[in-house]
Amino acid sequence: MTVTIGRRELLAAFGGAAAAWPLAAGAQLTERVRRIGLLMVHVESDQEGQTLAAAFREGLLKSGWTEGRNIRIDTRWAGGDLDRARSLATELVALAPDVIVTGGASYVTALLQATRTVPIVFATATDPVGGGLVASLARPGGNVTGFTLFEYGTSGKWLELLKEITPGLTRAAVIRDPSITSGTGQLAAIQAVAPSLGVELTPVDVREASGIEHSIAGFTQGSDCGLIVTISPLAVRHRELIIALAARHRLPAVYPERPFVVAGGLISYGLDYAGQFRQAAGYVDRILKGEKPADLPVQAPTKYDLVINLKTAKALGMEMPPTLLARADEVIE
């Protein structure tokens, strides 16, 4: 059977196809690639840094953002060097990203020196109000928002833990970076609980490796001393040195985050950093969909992890209190 199509029907068929083609093509073109800058505190070879970057990507993927399809992520690694961080911040801003993600108040400050318009989300920052990053936690008010690292009062917990594992402790060195607001704030919180615990504190300023080594060597006279490491990019940068010094001088030491304990440190109490970066991805999703950082409240962490390295405890000749082991979120053996 032969079917004859008239001229009018043929034109109508072509016209319908022609009309449908731009719509289909347009549907493919509407999903433009968004650009995200990621400024990391770590060196690129640091496994912890890679874990956090992966957690961030995982969070984006759950919100429907896929690299190579609708997002591009430009990652830069500062390695705890603030001068390098400032240079990389300028470099990232020059790429005209839709949003930049980082960790640490000092890195946010570096980014703010480069831009006051590009949205910035911090995954971990201490005292963003006191540090001048946001106007308030509820209403950040500018181009910055994110997730806090902890309240300063949490720092006192580090000294309480150090006293719990070494009841005879009377002296503690506190490694801090005095050039950043959080360095002073963390030390103040530790000083607030020191008298009630009968502990004398000795601040150790983090600058150069040789200075840290000299200060620790001069401090460790006697068996009644311990070490606390506060949070700072420089502490991350000198992580291996600090852990090695604690082992060499047989110092019980409390660290602010899990990677120190995984690398051989004794005990840490701090938040889940990977979880923070996943949450930061959620804020990036909201910003890419039209919300403004000024309207997204800064959120505080809700969970802290206690991690203990029993192998290190054994090397120091220490026995961890059973009650402490029972409270631990992770025990490395």
Could you please describe the fold and organization of this structure?
- This protein is α/β, with parallel strands linked by helices.
- The protein has 13 helices and twelve strands.
Helix and strand content put the structural class at alpha/beta
SS summary, helix count? 13
Q: Identify the CATH architecture of the largest domain.
A: 3-Layer(aba) Sandwich
Strand content: 15-25%
Bulk shape: elongated
**Total strand segments:** 12
Proportion of helical residues: 40-55%
According to CATH, what is the class of the largest domain? Answer: Alpha Beta
CATH homolog superfamily of the largest domain: Response regulator
CA(first)-CA(last) distance: 82 Å
Mean pLDDT: 89
Taking all Cα atoms into account, the compactness measure Rg is: 26 Å
Unreliable segments (pLDDT under 50, ≥5 consecutive)?
A: 10-14, 16-29
| N to C succession of SSEs | HEHEHEHEEHEHEHEHHEHEHEHHE
Largest sheet: 7 strands, mixed
Strand order of the largest sheet: 7-6-8-9-10-11-12
In terms of quaternary structure, the protein is single chain
Number of domains: 2
**CATH topology heading of the largest domain:** Rossmann fold
